[in-house]
Design a protein that fits this description.
The protein folds into 2 domains: 62 residues, no CATH class; 139 residues, no CATH class. It contains 11 helices and 2 strands. A two-stranded antiparallel ribbon has the order 1-2. The longest helix has 31 residues. With 239 residues, the protein is mostly helical. This is Sporulation-delaying protein SdpB. One of its GO terms (cellular component) is endomembrane system. Keywords: Membrane, Transmembrane, Transmembrane helix.
């Protein structure tokens, strides 16, 4: 299974690995002894991605879109299922926010205090010691409510303009990475980072990593550039 996941992550032949990805997610959801919610979401999203991957004839999903992926039917089916994915993720955030409002601890702003202080599911001791002044202050009410408000904000982002979507996209990823490093639900955090990308990024807008490429290129050029020196005898040398 791990080998299959490495192959899937490598991007090799998404037309074939898309179904395998869903099958692994599905079996993990039903066979894992401990799940944190990310498994169910992963199963649903990978299932909705199957029609898209079946139409993806690239050798690797990191390659740019090839000509035979640009026909009308492929674009229409891709668009349709990406809309379904966006609706699904939007419902997840909307349901999470509304369900919290039904809980007395979330409604009065003390839920994070109890959750972070829990000896089993809460923060590790070193983080708890750092955040204890915040947890014992009235500001914890604002922080608790900020979680619910932020999830409602992400719901609104589905209908927002591109700049606001990008803002929500970046904040959403930071939010879920924060969850990973605080309460440690890694599977859920990684899954939701992927869900945010599918949810708020334009489906045909490829990641270019322009800044990363420029930085790497600049570093490589500097490393390969010969340096000019003048030794003690006055001779010009290159190193």
């Amino acid at each position: 299974m791990i080998l299959c996941l490495f192959i899937i992550a490598s991007g090799w032949r998404p037309q074939y690995t898309g179904i395998i990805h869903w099958y692994i997610a599905y079996t993990l959801q039903w066979s894992a002894t401990t799940i944190d919610g990310g498994e169910q979401i992963n199963t649903v999203l990978t299932f909705l991605l199957i029609p898209i991957t079946l139409l993806d004839r690239r050798k690797n999903h990191f390659y740019k879109t090839v000509e035979n992926c640009n026909n009308f039917y492929s674009k229409y089916i891709t668009w349709l299922f990406m809309i379904l994915i966006k609706i699904q993720v939007g419902i997840i955030y909307l349901n999470a926010a509304l369900e919290r409002l039904k809980n007395p601890e979330w409604a009065d702003g003390t839920a994070l205090y109890y959750f972070f202080s829990d000896p089993i599911f809460g923060l590790p001791p070193y983080q708890l010691n750092v955040l204890e002044p915040l947890l014992n202050s009235p500001f914890i009410i604002l922080v608790t409510w900020a979680v619910t408000v932020f999830e409602l904000f992400l719901v609104i982002c589905m209908f927002a303009s591109s700049p606001l979507k990008r803002f929500g996209h970046n904040l959403g990823i930071i939010f879920h990475i924060g969850i990973i490093f605080t309460i440690g639900i890694v599977t859920f955090g990684i899954t939701m980072c992927a869900a945010v990308i599918l949810y708020l990024r334009q489906w045909n807008n490829e990641y270019s990593f322009t800044k990363v490429k420029k930085t790497l290129k600049k570093y490589i050029n500097l490393k390969n550039t010969k340096r000019f020196f003048v030794d003690s005898s006055g001779r010009s040398i290159f190193k």
